[in-house]
Amino acid sequence: MVTTPETKLNPVEKAKAQKHPLLLKQELEQLAQMGWEALEEKNEFDLHYGLKWLGFFYRTVTPGKFMLRMRIPNGILTSGQMRVLANIVQRYGQGAGFQDRGNADITTRQNFQLRGIRIEDIPAIFDQLRQAGLTSVQSGMDNVRNITGSPVAGLNADELIDTRGLVRNLQDVITNNGEGNLALSNLPRKFNIAVAGGRDNSVHAEINDLGYLPAYKDGKIGFNIIVGGFFAPKQYVSAIPLNAWIEPKDVVPLAEAMLIVYNDNGPRANRSKCRLMHLIEAWGIEKFRAEVEKQLGHPLEPAAAKDEIDWEKRDHIGVYRQKQPGLNYVGLHVPVGRLYAEEMFELARMAEVYGSGEIRLTVEQNLIIPNIPDTRLETFLEEPLLRERFPIDPEPLQRALVSCTGSEFCGYAIIETKNRALAMIKELEAELDTPKPVRIHWTGCPNSCGQPQVADIGLIGTKTRKDGKVVEAVDIWMGGKVGKDARLGKEVMKKIPCDELKQVLRDLTIEHFNARPK
Ligand code: SRM
Ligand code: SF4
Prior knowledge:
This protein is of the alpha+beta class. It has helices at 11-18, 28-34, 36-42, 44-48, 79-92, 122-131, 164-175, 251-265, 276-283, 285-296, 341-354, 374-381, 384-388, 396-399, 418-431, 498-513; strands at 56-59, 65-69, 76-78, 104-106, 112-117, 148-149, 193-195, 210-217, 220-227, 230-232, 235-237, 240-246, 318-321, 327-332, 338-339, 358-361, 367-373, 402-403, 432-433, 440-443, 457-466, 469-478, 490-497, 516-517.
């Protein structure tokens, strides 16, 4: 362990040592009866942190209300599951905030978060999820987050590896089939895993703690492994090669071995220095690799000379032919990822009537309905929901807009993001003709959940002084690249007040992205 015996454990570690937070699962009925106010008095840690092990995030911004973070492996769910989630939003999510109704957000990890949940309803919701084959366990705190995989896995003729089963197996092992896994849920910190199956790295694996990139070795397709990518305030780090190539059958054993090495040896003192990369830095990549090999019980093969990521990243919005003859997948743009219950019911219906009942989410906070036969496509495209809310051909600036939650619901936020981002982009679109999408990512604080460092233009919430007052502002990053030759952007401007931002974005899109005033 990098933390020496005499090093102080951080307060979260101390609390976890008292009681493993997953054990709260057995106390849900009691907690529901107790209510959130009594719980706050009796055990603040359980309210604010412990329940995150089960996927329930207490929101100080909306007192008494929780956000429910799901796990949607590879971003794939069925229409039946979508209805269960819609029902939770409708039935339990009242008075959640904006427009005073519950909502759901598609996240930057191909996942769903539902809002407005009360502690009294958690046991019923937990049961409903289980019955629907869904789980929210281990979706927060010192756990492996939702595992991302190619959003068009199994649909695309050009895919190299179908990631669906691999991601599902990873989740099942890591969460003990959704019931909770005590052995892998007391990590030193969060842990992100992404499995890329296509040539464009749709999941941008390079910003994950563990990334699998398709690569050929001796004519066989497998994965090159990259490790240690993460974003934290003032630490924005791309993953580095482990110099290992594995066959698809070794995806799960490798992850398990790495998680055990991290669990047993990762630093547990200062929480801002506990991510996997901090262990790799302390040990050096050679020793880290050797320890993973030891845990695996066999040597790792050296990496293939190159990976197969040689396409620009696609956003999957629009109509695309599948590898299955006569079938299509259609990507819908969901503005800043936000959905309401009635829209979720409607999407479930549309996926059933026109497709196979399957729905997929993307890390750009959009969704895909696959398996729509040629014969039904035209009628599908006339559905009012596509015209009114979720277009398949959005304007170029809106198309690539991504935003984290921001101050509407997130206690860490320094600024408001989603609503502001959408309003500003609409104003810019009214003023500018932009020849192609510009990926503008908003994030409400330096935690960088909205991934501003991979964007063409990334905006990180901060505060500044203007006319003697403290006002909301952003630091601006540019030059992030995803897909082929992925790289992180760089900070180019600091502390631009939000009320001056539209003009700055206008100038940047004209100067760097060939936009023209209308
Ligand atoms: Fe995040 C914490 C939202 C993706 C880095 N993130 C939080 C919390 C849980 C803080 C809190 O308790 O309020 C936010 C919940 C707000 C809310 O009510 O919605 C939050 N993070 C999000 C989401 C919903 C942003 C979005 O709008 O899409 C994303 C949920 C993903 C999921 O489904 O699991 C989300 N967060 C990310 C990403 C992007 C990614 O994973 O590719 C990052 C950067 C990558 C990384 O983690 O290395 C990210 N979130 C953080 C951090 C900084 C981590 C660190 O090591 O310091 C925190 C704060 C923390 O963990 O201490 C954080
Ligand atoms: Fe909240 Fe900050 Fe993450 Fe946005 S970046 S969701 S404000 S923690």
